[in-house]
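Readers of this paper often ask what the protein records in our data store actually look like. Below, we set out a record of this kind in full and without editing:
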Amino acid sequence: MNKYLYIVVISFILGACTSNTIMKKPKDLIPKDQMVDLLTDLILANGGDNVKNLNLKRNTNYFPFVFDKYQIDTTRFKESNYYYTSRIDDYDDILGEVNERLKTLKKMYEEEIKVADSIERHKKDSIRKKKKPFIKKPRDIE
């Protein structure tokens, strides 16, 4: 009898954990394409907090700037994010697009760094070529 009770309790717990609760659509839901843009910028802002900014300051919170850019408050973002996380397929699509954008940005910046490095190397090489080598003057013959 004890075994059956454990099995019933465990099945109820597992059933409760795997319920597909889908939240109601908020009235001011952020559209998917804007959500992709917003999440991409939030991830970049999160990664940029340890990098020195133009004022040579670190640990700057860039999240408010991102929300200002999209004219979205944190409550609207929270509600939209909760809604999309309750719809796994939609959220998976959004995160897939964010991942692709981040990969594209990374590839673009790596190409820019390569070009900048090759230009710098070329400048150094051309400076070396312009310098005249030191030539000893022959001694005057007496």
